[in-house]
Design brief:
With about 450 residues, the chain is of the alpha+beta class. Helices cover about 30% and strands about 30% of the residues. The strands form four sheets. Strands 5, 6, 7, 8, 9, 10 and 11 form a seven-stranded mixed beta sheet that branches. A six-stranded antiparallel beta sheet has the order 4-1-3-17-13-14, with helices on one face. A six-stranded mixed beta sheet has the order 2-19-18-12-16-15. A hairpin with a 3-residue loop joins β6 and β7. α3 runs parallel beside α4 and α9 packs antiparallel against α10. The two termini are about 40 Å apart. The N terminus is likely disordered.
Length: about 450
Amino acid sequence: MANFSKPIGPQFSVEVYQNEYLPEGGREVNAIVTVTATGGGTVGGAVSAPGLYGAAAPDAAVAIMVDCSGSMDYPSTKMRGAREATAAAIDTLRDGVRFAVIAGTHVAKEVYPGGGGLAVADSRTREEAKDALRSLSAGGGTAIGTWLRLAKGLLTGAEAAIRHGILLTDGRNEHESPEDLKAALDDCAGSFTCDARGVGTDWEVKEVTGIASALLGSADIVADPSGLREDFTRMMEQAMGKEIADVALRLWTPLGSEIRFVKQVAPTVEELTGRRAEAGPRAGDYPTGSWGDESRDYHLCIEVPDAAIGREMLAARVSLVITEADGGVQTLSQGLVRAVWTDDMAASTSLNPQVAHYTGQAELADVIQRGLEARKAGDLDGATAKLGRAVQLASASGNADTAKLLAKVVDVVDEATGTVRLKAKVADSDEMTLETRSTKTVRVKKS
């Protein structure tokens, strides 16, 4: 008889791509670390995580935060689209998941189930929640920090293995200071992950992307409210696919070495260097959030002590770890980053293709953002130069999606040289889409 029970825990594998050879006097070691998590089956070389979860899916808790400020009525399709999208997300919840719906204005209100708790998803509570959505109406201001703090209280009270938020806004966070929002994000970081969406074109890109970045979620634009239903359904499906939370990338480096930076570089560029939490002598943890069946790439740059030709050393040990309820640490998988000094110039000057690719992808995200900022500031020459470089990088790396978005902001004369002309008129939605999705990368094609 076939066994259809869910396999125990996700399995993780770590692969390291680098050119370990350094010239005489060389000190900078770069490596791309590919982490792959698989919820079922066997991954070659993977280390399983026994006992994390049994045959049942992990406990999960979800809070959906819906902007109900006055601007959601202009046009009215935004409020209607938000109700329909939230209903679709509720329908996507699997049985047993605890959930709540929060209406966000200048204050936060629990629309369902109320009473400071969470409902358990089943056919009855889904219908009750969708009935409660009819009471959502637009009016009031926007103070996103209050929404996040309420979500944190609800989600952490559930003590679920997976805690996730979905946040929708259509405007700027005008009823609290940037410092208040940052304080709320600092307070919520590590408590739950959160996907953030901006609907329409009147919201602030850096606010929405900043929320997603701080809470290790995704950010995107839904320019037309009619697209909210599909987007919310997809977000909830991805949230339901998460199997393990609070995974950390742990780096150990030997005495005399220094970590220059740690970045996630696929599927998006995300700076992690400043998020290090000390984890013992010469070791630090960098948060990666929740995982399902997926793969991500990280770029590590380490400065090592100088050594003589012929010497080799371990530049870093990379581990995926989780901290268990009793405070113990479980290692899910690990890989090694090496440094070898050589007088072979061909070996020491060869650029690893994975490192080269993602260095270009990180530069692509940076020049898009700087180019758009220059354009907004009226620096047309600077904007043309930066966005031209972006076109060149997108073409060279095969990032077709970003190339298409760039083509809505500039007229491309020559992709190879990055020769472009700024368009005289650009739709707000096109510019905001490019800015919001500028950090999305393409995976390197491994030979």
